[in-house]
Amino acid sequence: MFFLISSDASGQRVLTQSAVTYMNLGSTVTLDCNIEKDEGNNISWLKQVPGSPPQHILYFYHSWSSPTDYGTGFSSSRFTSKAQGKTDYQLIISNAEASDSAIYFCQTWDDSSRSRLDTVVFGKGTRLIISEANLPPPSVTIIPQVPENLADSDTVTLVCIANKLSVSLADLKWTSDGTEVTSNTYSISSYLSITGREWKADKVYVCTASQGSTVSALWWS
């Protein structure tokens, strides 16, 4: 049997998940996934810690009373799934732990594909960050990579690295003279490319890292 794996292809169904969720230790977490339409296929939930392969959590279908086929390390005492109607699914994590910080994906099958291959469709994932109410601020470093004999049309890359993180995920964003220039990267390193002309303009570039309610920022000018 052959499979076609897709996260969002034209003509195929789209699984919708929120981008990021912050929760405190010990709380109950609810992650949502809209599968667009019901074709009689169950969905599965997967957990991925950056740098590691995805882990299967469970299978669920809206007509079932409870999930089935839990993955290794996951149990019904803390992980379950529910459905609101036939297309809105939820992964529920009880008594959240710091190790639950990860990216969570929902996955199902797309029977409407014109291909003869069975198509596996994934959501884009929700980044779940579990933290204590008061975390220490991360340490931020900016490393510029500037070509020799810089011309206005050359590219300068600013590398922002966040260290001393208490969880495996953090928000990083860039601003230039107070204006945000990229979207959140939700990782522990971020790259900003600018032109040589912009580099010579003496603008102030700021990399801001946050985990939970704590924020650190570093300026470069």
Automatic annotation (TrEMBL):
It holds the Pfam family V-set. GO terms for cellular component: plasma membrane. InterPro entries: Ig-like_dom (IPR007110), Ig-like_dom_sf (IPR036179), Ig-like_fold (IPR013783), Ig_C1-set (IPR003597), Ig_sub (IPR003599), Ig_sub2 (IPR003598), Ig_V-set (IPR013106), TCR_complex_component (IPR052051). It is found in: Cell membrane. PROSITE patterns: IG_LIKE. It comes from the Eukaryota. Residues 12-122, 138-221 form the Ig-like domain. Gene3D superfamilies: Immunoglobulins. Keywords: Cell membrane, Disulfide bond, Glycoprotein, Immunity, Membrane, Signal. One of its GO terms (biological process) is response to bacterium. This is Ig-like domain-containing protein. It comes from Erpetoichthys calabaricus (Rope fish).
